[in-house]
Amino acid sequence: MKQGNLTDPTSLHPKPPFQKQSQPWPGLAGKMDPRPDHGETSYKGSGRLSGRKALITGGDSGMGRAAAIAFAREGADVAINYFPTEEPDAQDVIALIKAAGRRGLAMPGDIRSEAFCRELVARAVDGLGGLDIVVCNAARQQSRESILDVSSDDFDATMKTNVYAPFWIIKAALPHLKPGACIIGTTSEQAYDPSPELYDYAQTKAATMNYVKSLAKQLGPKGIRVNGVAPGPIWTPLQVSGGASMEKLEKFGGQTPLGRPGQPAELASIYVQLAAGDASYATGQVYGSAGGSGQP
Predict the structure, then answer these.
(1) What is the CA radius of gyration of the chain?
(2) Which are the contacts of 159, defined by CB distance < 8 A and separation ≥ 6?
(3) Mean per-residue pLDDT for 74-79?
(4) Which active-site residues does the annotation give?
């Protein structure tokens, strides 16, 4: 509901109950009901990232897609990485980047491979002509009622995606980052208020929050900023491809003070702010966006 220039956040986006729905991992935003809002029609840029060059993992959907759209409309060239089965979503994003008049590079591949992570950074640097924003956003989340239901393969896949991949990507990117560049990690409210059914995922988000703070201290003297974004319940394919039970999905986000899940578009401006040069004193920070249900 709008009143003048004000918008009531409680009624801005869909509320539960949501219909039960399931997709094979990692899922497609284009097949969700309702479809997530990544800012496709709403985000307006103002040149805040003019001439910048960004690499975003998980850039096909969710917060990565919202960041990619916003970065492009703010004047940045953007390379996105995604799992090969997410190609339909990725092509939508590339079209939006190009419609904004910026260079968009599609880079499918599995970031659980160290060799691919190195190749990804090299291709991004070559294709964009440099790199000065690195967003480590891709994540694996699979809900398991008990630790006894988490196989070693499950645990390994989650750790490789959420912890190892940023380690490999940042190591490969660092020689290319100059003073003024920035690194942004996507952590979660799970880092400080973990759900019992997300035993492995929650650990990785605590690790993300920790590396943000550690790297910020290490890279601060080099003029490179490192920050994190900590979403709460956000409507993304992560939830419908094994990240939430059907019971939890129906009520998703309803427990927050705003009474609904967030949409990826509602976090786009946070990624832009952390990447922009006028946030020059923000490093080692974690910016929460959880509908009022908690803070990092």
Answers:
(1) 18
(2) 200, 204
(3) 98
(4) 201
